[in-house]
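Why does this matter for the project? Reviewers at the last site visit asked to see concrete outputs rather than summary tables. In response, this paragraph embeds two records directly. Each consists of the residue sequence and, immediately after it, the corresponding structure tokens. Nothing has been edited or filtered.
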Amino acid sequence: MALNYATYLKIPELLELQHEQSDPVEHDEMLFIIIHQTYELWFKLMLHEFDKVKGDLSAGNLYGSIATFQRVRTIMKTLVAQLDILETMTPMSFTSFRARLETSSGFQSSQFREFEFLLGYKRPEVLKYHPEDLPGYEQARQRLAERSVVDHFYDFLEHHAVTIPAALREKDIAARTEPNEEVQDQLLPLYKSRPDLAILFELMTDFDEGQQEWRYRHVKVVERTIGSKHGTGGSPGVEFLKKSLFQAVFPDLWAIRHRL
């Protein structure tokens, strides 16, 4: 049979992946499943795109980096917008099928954990919430042991005569990104003298703002839906999520704003 729209995209298989667990079936469970499956697809794409941008940054490929950051910034805005759809589900609607989630929890999203580690928000301790037999566990551990996108950004800056402090190059690979004044002092003249680089830096900041906005909106959706309860599967819930708010991916780009 010739390849067509349905077979290329595997539409029949895709549409068979939504199975409600409630009995009798609660209407909003379908919404809950599709929203989260869609998020996992977007996470897959962003991991794919950031694997590309890491190579572009290390190679000093300015225009490739710009193109990819434009894309991931737009994807991030889409993730935020999807929360508007999820918020049409009331707390009572969620409660009607919440117990049927049993030990499953969005906190177990291995792809999102990969995403955090890739961006430099490395917290090895969060893996304790991921059973070792959970699909994607090993991929998350691998991301923890890989250089983050910020490390590749340092490579890019070196292409433009920025001296990266030895302490940053020699830090524990599993340590989270921290701001550095030496890097900031060298970024500032690039911002002022290289408008082409400034375009990239602003796109990176746009993306960073978007991921912080998503975290905030996600926390508020969870708080609005379950309040101070623990999450499903024993996950820590709202208070733990709040600790991740306003964690910048590129703290040095934020730190110099008042000096521009």
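We now turn to the second protein, recorded in exactly the same manner.
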Amino acid sequence: MDPLIILNSLIYAFLGIVIFIVGFIIVDKLTPYDLWKQLVEEKNVALAIVVGSAALGICLIIASAIH
């Protein structure tokens, strides 16, 4: 396999992960409460579903934009 294809795949994967992290931080800052405390300490299942859905949505947008 061509090493350039592998390098391009790694660059796009890294770029997608970085964009996802930035997007998730923005979602965390826009919410009026501390997401980590609500999810881990208080075990808010409804919020976990919403945050998981938002994460999947962000990932789909990033994947479509990069592809």
